[in-house]
Amino acid sequence: MGTQPLTLCPGGCISLHCYTGHEGGAEEAQAPAHRVRTLSPRRWWVMSGLFIWLEGLEPAALMLAALADADKARTESLLLVERLPVKAPQRP
Length: 92
Fold this sequence. Notes:
Blueprint: E1 13-19, H1 25-36, E2 44-50, E3 60-66, E4 78-84
Parallel strand pairs: 1-4
Antiparallel strand pairs: 2-3, 3-4
């Protein structure tokens, strides 16, 4: 995500998946979460959630929606950021 401004086309959507199964992967997966904390709360709506069926693997998803500007009447774009677990859970 770097230091470039986060911009999306009207109605656009981005999905970012971070693989944590390699050296440094866990740190890389934290970068999007840190980056979204720098976004203006007046322009972005940020939600975070956990996948309850992957207990113990700590996967998380961040969902960002671009809020309408003062001169616009609607939300224009959506960014989905998902951190994937290192391995799938064992099924009974």
